[in-house]
Each structure stands twice: as structure tokens, then as C-alpha cells.
Write a structure and sequence with these properties.
The protein is built from 11 helices and 10 strands. By secondary structure, the protein is an alpha+beta fold. The strands form 2 sheets. It has a 7-stranded mixed sheet with strand order 1-5-6-10-9-8-7, with helices on both faces. The chain has a 3-stranded antiparallel sheet with strand order 2-4-3. Helix 1 packs antiparallel against helix 3, helix 3 runs antiparallel to helix 4 and helix 5 packs across helix 10. The chain is rod-shaped, with a radius of gyration of 44 Å. The structure holds adenosine-5'-[phenylalaninyl-phosphate].
């Protein structure tokens, strides 16, 4: 068989074996066998060089024509293979855009944070600014400047968490047992008139039960100006109690003792469930205890450089968990900080 016939046969057989293959591996094997460096076409083309010079042009032309036609067939098949692979992938990865989106789990505000914000908003409407103080405090601010004597039981390690090795110019360092030191810090930094509330965490070394935690949240209130009276405190607390617990809420004071106020009082609010007639939540008294309050002691004003003959003022301190318990009907304070998602999700 002369070379031209051999090239004719190679082209014919290769095109026949290629067929319309859509298999990528089979196509690659075909390319190596026909168009590869050691493929049948390359082998045949070596024969051109050994022909008589007069026969070479025709044979060379035929060889090139065979190469072009086989390459064209290869590339056309390759693009079909790619198109079919893509079509398969699109089918397999088809996205149903009509399916509803999968909901992402989202967190929500803690019930104590929600009540804290409501309290802040109610006081903001009355012109009170919300301020913060450090949770790790000096006993100078937590006790001494608040007129709490050195032998007061609250200072005992059984009641307060002291920071080991934490002594300095402010005395000993401890986790604040109340938000009242923020009163002191505020009065030292600002001249009257002062109207602030100070919500934040407080810590006491005590056995926990349904209404006591070792870590809890208080909100402090402080108002210092000329001619401020207990009636202003009662009016302010009544407005806030009504904003939080409804329009029937009333406030009353009972005598109470705190070294940093004189006179001192315990604050009660009419029970928001029975409106004062007596129920299980208010232990049939019609009243619910909210916290402590009173007129800022003249000695405390003098301690922070405010003249008690010119200025007077009131202060109060309430537990925010207790507010949240009343508001959401929660019977055990310990639920707030157990991090049980089933409990917390109810407030989402
Ligand atoms: C005080 O802490 C005073 N600093 C309040 C005060 C401020 C009086 C300004 C006068 C002027 P008392 O220890 O009673 O007072 O706490 C106030 C409120 O904090 C309580 O009524 C209660 O609601 C809450 N509280 C106290 N101890 C705990 C506790 N262990 N767990 C949860 N809440 C508590």
C-alpha cells in the first residue's frame, strides 16, 4: 500500500472509530492513538521524508489534509463532551429557587436586658441619664464614702467577694455589692444638679434560693439639686412603676435603714396582678417590695464635696431580676443565669 492509500485508510478508520463519542476518557485515548506524538498519523507522516523528492509534495499535502480533518473531528467531539458534562452537572446541582429559605438560628435579648432597657427609657423620659461604674470596686467607694462603718457586717468576707492581693489607695478591692458606689463616683465627678440612674451587675457572697443570687443586677437612682424632697422620689418612682407595670401602680414607703440615707425607706409597689387586693404573688399583702431608698445622708454629701446646707437629694436601689420576675411571671431567680436555651428562647 503506498503512503497516500495508508493516509486515506488512517483517516477513514479513525473517523469511523471516533463516531460521535461523548466519553471524555475514550476521546483522550483516541487522541493519543491517532494524533499523539506516537500515534498512527505521526508514524505515517514519517514516511513522507523517505519518499522520492518528486512524490513528497503530494504525499505531504495529503498528510496535512488528513491531520486537519482529524483535528477538526477531535475538537468538535471535545466541545460536545464538554457541553454534555456541563449539562449533567447543571442537572445534578439543580437549585429549586422556590423552596423556602432555611431559617438561621438567631439569639434574642436576655429578659434582664429587656427590663433594663425599659427602665432606662422610662427614666430618660424624666431627664435621667444612664451611667455605669466598675464591677470591681474599691471598698472606699463601695462602703467608706457611703458612710458604712468599718465594722459593718456587709464588709465581712462572708457577705462580699474580695479580690486577693487587691489593695491600693482605695483600700481593698472587691466585687461591688451594690450599685451605690456609682452615686459616689458621679457626685465626685459632677456638680449638682444631678439626675442619673446606674444599672449594672452586683455580687454578694450568699447562699442562693428562689429569690437570691450571688450575681444579680441592681439599678441605682440619684437626684441631687436644691429643695429636692422625698415627695419627688415618690412621684418619680410612681411614673416609672406605671410605665413598667401599668396605670394602677402605686408606691409606698416603709421605714428602712441604710447608712447612706436619712431618712431611709423600703419601697413597695401595689401588686400588679391583684392591684392591691391580695394574691399568691404578693403573699396576700397587696404590696410587692422593690428595693431601698431615702434622702442622701448629709455626711455622704459632705464626703463628696457637696454642701448639705445648699443641696439635698434622694437615692434608691432596686433589683432588676425582681422586676423581670414580676413582669414575666418567673418564680425562681436562678433560671436567669442557668443558660438554659429553652428558658431564654421564650423571650425571643
Ligand atoms: C441596697 O443594695 C442599697 N444599696 C439600696 C439603696 C440604694 C438604698 C440607695 C438606699 C439608697 P438592698 O441590699 O436591700 O439595698 O438591695 C436592694 C435590692 O436589690 C433588693 O430589694 C433586691 O431587689 C435586690 N437584691 C438584693 N440582694 C439580692 C440577691 N442576692 N439576689 C437578687 N436580688 C437581690
Amino acid at each position: 500500500m503506498d503512503l497516500i492509500e495508508r493516509l486515506d485508510a488512517i483517516e477513514r478508520d479513525a473517523l469511523a472509530s471516533l463516531g460521535g463519542t461523548l466519553d471524555a476518557d475514550a476521546l483522550e485515548r483516541w487522541r493519543l492513538a491517532v494524533l499523539g506524538r506516537r500515534g498512527s498519523l505521526a508514524e505515517a507522516m514519517k514516511g513522507v521524508a523517505v519518499l522520492a523528492p518528486s512524490d513528497r509534495p503530494r504525499a505531504g499535502e495529503r498528510a496535512n489534509a488528513a491531520k486537519q480533518s482529524l483535528e477538526a473531528a477531535y475538537f468538535s467531539c471535545l466541545s460536545s463532551v464538554k457541553a454534555s458534562a456541563r449539562a449533567h452537572a447543571l442537572e445534578a446541582e439543580r437549585i429549586d429557587v422556590t423552596l423556602p429559605a432555611r431559617a438561621r438560628p438567631t439569639g434574642s435579648l436576655h429578659p434582664v436586658t429587656m427590663i433594663r432597657r425599659e427602665v432606662e427609657q422610662a427614666f430618660a423620659r424624666l431627664g435621667f441619664t444612664s451611667v455605669e461604674g466598675p464591677e470591681v470596686e474599691w471598698d472606699h467607694y463601695n462602703f467608706t464614702l457611703l458612710n458604712i462603718p468599718p465594722d459593718h457586717p456587709a464588709r465581712d468576707t462572708q457577705d462580699s467577694f474580695y479580690v486577693q492581693g487587691g489593695t491600693g489607695e482605695g483600700g481593698e478591692m472587691l466585687l461591688r455589692t451594690q450599685t451605690s458606689p456609682v452615686q459616689i463616683r458621679t457626685m465626685l465627678a459632677h456638680k449638682p444638679p444631678i439626675r442619673i440612674i446606674a444599672p449594672g451587675r452586683t455580687y454578694r457572697n450568699e447562699a442562693t434560693d428562689a429569690s437570691h443570687e450571688a450575681m444579680f443586677t441592681q439599678v441605682e437612682g440619684l437626684c441631687i439639686d436644691k429643695n429636692v424632697t422625698l415627695a419627688d422620689l415618690r412621684g418619680t418612682l410612681t411614673v416609672v412603676a406605671r410605665a413598667l407595670f401599668g396605670p394602677h401602680s402605686e408606691i409606698r414607703f416603709r421605714c428602712g435603714y441604710f447608712p447612706f440615707v436619712e431618712p431611709g425607706a423600703e419601697i413597695d409597689m401595689t401588686c400588679h396582678l391583684c392591684h392591691g387586693s391580695g394574691c399568691r404573688v404578693c403573699k396576700r399583702t397587696g404590696w410587692i417590695e422593690l428595693g431601698g431608698a431615702g434622702m442622701v445622708h448629709p455626711r455622704v454629701l459632705a464626703n463628696v464635696g457637696i454642701d448639705p446646707d445648699e443641696y439635698s437629694g434622694w437615692a434608691f436601689g432596686c433589683g432588676l431580676e425582681r422586676f423581670a420576675m414580676l413582669r414575666y411571671g418567673i418564680e425562681d431567680i436562678r433560671l436567669f443565669y442557668e443558660n438554659d436555651v429553652r428558658f431564654l428562647q421564650q423571650f425571643a
